[in-house]
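Support request, please re-run this one:
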Amino acid sequence: MRRFLIDENISPEYRTQLLYHEPSLTVLAVGDEGAPPKSTPDPEILVWCEQNQFSLITNNRKSMPQHLEDHLAAGHHVPGIFTINLEVPMGKNIEELLVIAGASDADEYIDQITYIPL
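Re-run finished. Output below.
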C-alpha cells in the first residue's frame, strides 16, 4: 500500500483523517520522528521520499514542478507527488487520496505530480 509523507504546510488533520479512514496506511508528516525535520528544503524532501518509498502530499504548486524536474535530471525518482488544493473541502481531498492509496499500483504515479482533486 502507498505510504504518504505530508508536507509541513499541510494541516496535521490530513494525517488524522487519512488514518481514521484507513488505519493500515503509513502516514508521516515532516517533523515527525522518522521523517525529515521541519524546514528541510524541498529537494531534500524528494530525496528522502525516494529513499524511503513515500509519496509526498503537498500544496506547493509553485516550485514543486521545478524541484521534480531537477530531481529527475539528477537521475533520481520519486514514488509520486500529490499536490492538493487547500480551497477544496478537506473531505474531498481525503477521499481522493484514499482511492489513490487503495487502488493504485506502486509505480502508477512514479516521477509525476498529480493534482488533487483529480
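Residues 90-103 form the longest helix (14 residues). Strands lie at 3-6, 26-29, 55-58, 81-84, 113-116.
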